[in-house]
Amino acid sequence: MNWIKNLTAIVVLPFFICCTTENGRGQQMMNKQADQKSHRSLSEKPLTSLSDEQEFRRVLESLKQNLRKKSLKNVSALLNYPFYTSHKQASNGIGIPDDPINLSEFNTYKSAIFNTDVMRILPLCKEDNLSEIDDKTDEVYYRSLKKITDAGSKMYEVYMQYPERDTQAESYFSFIFGKVNGKFKMLATYAKWPVK
Fold first, then answer.
1. CA–CA separation, 143 vs 2, rounded Å?
2. In Å, what is the CA distance from 104 to each residue of 76, 100, 109, 190?
3. 40 Cβ neighbours under 8 A, 6+ residues apart
4. Residue ranges in the chain whose pLDDT is less than 50
5. Residue 105 per-residue DSSP state
6. Burial environment of residue 176 by CB neighbours within 10 A (0 to 12, 13 to 18, 19 or more)
7. Can you give the pLDDT at residue 196?
């Protein structure tokens, strides 16, 4: 009778050990799978789990790639409509957004919004050109755009200043980004030279 217990232990014990070791693909394998799930790359994470800054950076990177490829058709999907192309002047700075365009007007104004300087310079933007817009800003322009965005979301700006060709003058352009209906979009632009 003792030899039956020993035989059972010899046959059954390795089976239980096998199911709880890495070689047996047991518990340790499950732990590895859990570790892999918690270490997914940013590109694999669903958009809803990204912070506002991460979503903004994704949209900005998409814009930069499309500009490098000179694919303005794809850029139109990154804009929120109406898309504001200017601002009114105010005594204490820049005033409310102005000169809106809608989707059907994009083809008319795309080469003015994304002129040769923007096409050349924006894909090269660096951290110094990016800023988060303060929720408590006094600027009427940003407060007006904030009303378009989802409550509690952040807004970001890409601002680039550069020397004009063949002159001593400086020029600039800016694009404002914000979350509308759960997606980050470009809300507006302003530049030294008007679009309309």
1. 85
2. 10, 12, 10, 20
3. none
4. 3, 6-9, 11-45, 47
5. G
6. buried
7. 85
In the numeric block, the tokens 């059972």 are attached to 8
* Pair of tokens at residue 5: 């217990």
- The C-alpha atoms of residue 188 and residue 192 are separated, in whole angstroms, by 14
Burial of 4 (0-12, 13-18, 19+ CB in 10 A): exposed
Task: Give 118's contacts (C-beta < 8 A, 6+ positions apart).
Answer: 67, 173, 191
- C-alpha to C-alpha distance for 63 and 129, rounded to whole angstroms: 15
> Could you tell me the CA-to-CA distances from 115 to 52, 70, 95, 143, 173 in Å, in that order?
28, 11, 23, 27, 10
pLDDT for position 2: 54
121 burial class (0-12, 13-18, 19+ CB within 10 angstroms)? middle
Quick check: 48 and 153 in contact, CB under 8 A?
A: no
pTM for the model = 0.73
Tell me what pLDDT residue 17 has.
45
Q: Spell 76-114 as b/e; 16+ CB within 10 A means b.
A: eebbbbbbbbbbeeeeeebbebbbebeeeebeeebebbb
Coil vs helix vs strand at 153:
coil
81-90: pLDDT as tens digits: 999 999 988 7
The CA R_g of the chain, rounded to the nearest whole Å, is 27
Show the tokens assigned to 99. Answer: 């000169």
Taking alpha carbons only, the member of 186, 189, 179 closest to residue 84 is: 189
